[in-house]
């Protein structure tokens, strides 16, 4: 999760987020090199004492500042397009969870289990226990097995919402009457926090998303317990 004073992105918990972090670092280095080069050219131009007023154009310079930016854009665009296609791929998921956005809570349905459905509301500040995080904890967590491909179907009941988990590199719009999908593989057990990322009304910032990744055996025990309670 995010922490005070954080400058970078959250630590990756999925292969997709690792790729996004690598692309971020790669693009940042390209931007830094371009900024240094432009700053150097501007400095030398301003501080130059000799100018040639007879040169009106230069074919060599025109070619360089046309071809060089095009090459830079291509080197950024290719890995970017690769990532876009990776984010859209849903390959043989082991389970499917349906997330439905409401004003202002989430409803989750485990489509592979009959009658496994629950609502997830934010825990109010006065009800938090020691160790829980304000505005991020929900009374019911989405429990998924670690190292298993999980597909999430996202929709909304009333207005636009967005199901987002930064540590997993996942963000899908929840649109009424439309079913969007995304997928992730969580590499390690843990608890991961997100929030609705679409301004959906007065309590937009009070509908957190909490996903708990557990070993497969623990997930099976949890699912049996939840089905018994249902």
UniProtKB/TrEMBL annotation:
Q: Name one GO molecular function term.
A: copper ion binding
Output a single Gene Ontology CC term carried by this record: mitochondrial inner membrane
What CDD domains does its record include? CcO_II_C
What Pfam families does the record point to?
COX2 (PF00116), COX2_TM (PF02790)
Quote the record's cofactor note: Binds a copper A center.
Q: Which co-factors does it depend on?
A: Cu cation
Q: What is this protein called?
A: Cytochrome c oxidase subunit 2
Per the UniProt record, the source organism is Chascanopsetta lugubris
Q: What is the lineage of its organism?
A: Eukaryota, Metazoa, Chordata, Craniata, Vertebrata
Write the gene name.
COX2
